[in-house]
């Protein structure tokens, strides 16, 4: 009788694990990059097993020429190719999608391209804004399909 009760408990715990909010169907964690007044910048990793930390010191609607950032992760896989995909939302609606190749096998752009599984990547310091401006893009025809 005790064995049957234990099996029933095991099945109940397994079933609860499948249907509970913390099961695999839950969205990946959302992290805050910065927060300032009405502006809040959030991010999610596209890989639930490869989370990373990222923050910006100054949070402003206007991108400054130099930003102080912090970024860190431990690699779960070798970096052969890496792309940055950005989706900008306001009030639940997507207003900008941007994709940029960071690491390509034949064209590494950064020193961490080619790093191996298990290595740690950490950077804290300034980065230069390459001239990308959000507000002028919102007034251009990219909303009809053209890239900004």
Automatic annotation (TrEMBL):
InterPro entries: LY86 (IPR039945), ML_dom (IPR003172). One of its GO terms (biological process) is positive regulation of lipopolysaccharide-mediated signaling pathway. Residues 43-147 form the MD-2-related lipid-recognition domain. Residues 1-24 form the signal peptide. Keywords: Signal. This is Lymphocyte antigen 86 isoform X3. It comes from Mustela putorius furo (European domestic ferret).
């Amino acid at each position: 009788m005790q064995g049957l009760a234990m099996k029933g408990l095991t099945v109940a715990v397994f079933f609860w694990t499948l249907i509970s909010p913390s099961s695999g169907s839950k969205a990946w964690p959302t992290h805050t990059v910065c927060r300032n007044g009405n502006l809040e910048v959030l991010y999610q990793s596209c890989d639930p097993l490869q989370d990373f930390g990222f923050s910006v010191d100054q949070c402003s609607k206007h991108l400054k020429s130099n930003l102080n950032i912090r970024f860190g992760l431990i690699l779960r896989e070798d970096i052969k190719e890496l792309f940055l995909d950005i989706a900008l939302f306001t009030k639940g609606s997507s207003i900008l999608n941007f994709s940029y190749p960071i690491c390509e096998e034949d064209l590494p752009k950064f020193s961490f391209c080619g790093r191996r599984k298990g290595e740690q990547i950490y950077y804290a310091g300034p980065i230069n804004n390459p001239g990308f401006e959000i507000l002028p893009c919102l007034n251009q025809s990219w909303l009809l399909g053209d890239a900004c």
